[in-house]
Amino acid sequence: AISAICWNPEDNNLLASCSVGMRIAIWDLENEEEVFSLKTAEVPTLLDWASSGDKIVYASEAGNIMHWDYKAQKQTKLFSVSAKSAKVLRWHPRNGNKLLCGVEDGSLHVYNQQTQKKVLIIGKSKTSKDPVTDAQWDPLSDEYLLVAFGDGMLTLYDASTQKEIHSFDKQSQVIKSIAWAKSQPGNFVTVTERLGLLKLWNVSQRAPLSQIK
């Protein structure tokens, strides 16, 4: 069974997938063929491409966050979290050295591959321990992170200080996905568990701007 898929950020012809069969593959869709593959030592559950498009990071069921340079066929362990706890994995869209991992206890790990240092954002881990359900780097900032939690909370953090910048109105349902509106700087869209309901937000306001049904 496929556990995750992800498009290459530079080449929309390339798609990466990982499976519970302990395997990661990169597919050339135009030619309908597999071009790279990796047999992993542990079950991969999440993956994401680096912004440069030439490297992949994946999280294993055991909690190891691994870096795969598929052209060199070399993989390296970056850091680890508790087993089965990784929920979100995001490379920074502009800084190919910066990686985010959101976990089950509501905390966020921000890793810098260049310095090989990791910082912890407490998030919900100190209070409610609701899991991170989604997180996205602000495409216009090197440090800002927009994070959704299992209790319906939505928060903007500064990764450089590990502090909360802004919180939004708590939602009655879990926010499953966040996406920045590329043509509308500062705006983003959320999807909750309610079928067919999208909400449009702005980072400067607590309440949604509108609902899209």
Quickly list its features.
213 residues, mainly beta, four-stranded antiparallel β-sheet, 53% strand, globular
Model description:
The protein is an all-beta fold. 0% of the residues lie in helices and 53% in strands. The protein contains no helices and 20 strands. Strands 1-2-3-4 form a four-stranded antiparallel sheet, with no helix packed on it. A four-stranded antiparallel sheet has the order 5-6-7-8, with no helix packed on it. The two termini are 32 Å apart.
Would you spell out the secondary-structure blueprint of this structure?
Elements lengths: L1 E6 L6 E6 L3 E6 L4 E7 L4 E6 L6 E5 L3 E6 L4 E7 L5 E6 L6 E6 L4 E5 L4 E5 L10 E6 L6 E6 L4 E5 L4 E5 L7 E6 L6 E6 L5 E5 L7 E3 L1
Antiparallel strand pairs: 1-2, 2-3, 3-4, 5-6, 6-7, 7-8, 9-10, 10-11, 11-12, 13-14, 14-15, 15-16, 17-18, 18-19, 19-20
- Chain-averaged pLDDT: 94
What Rg is obtained from the alpha carbons, in whole angstroms?
Answer: 17 Å
Which class best fits the helix and strand makeup? mainly beta
Estimate percent helicity.
under 10%
Q: What would the principal axes of the Cα set say about the shape?
A: globular
Order of helices and strands: EEEEEEEEEEEEEEEEEEEE
**Strands, count:** 20
The residue ranges in which pLDDT falls below 50 over 5 or more consecutive positions are: none
Distance from N terminus to C terminus (CA atoms, Å) equals 32 Å
Strand content: over 45%
Strand count, sense and closure of the main sheet? 4 strands, antiparallel
If helices are DSSP runs of H or I spanning 4 or more residues, what is the number of helices? 0
Q: Biggest sheet: strands side by side, in what order? A: 1-2-3-4
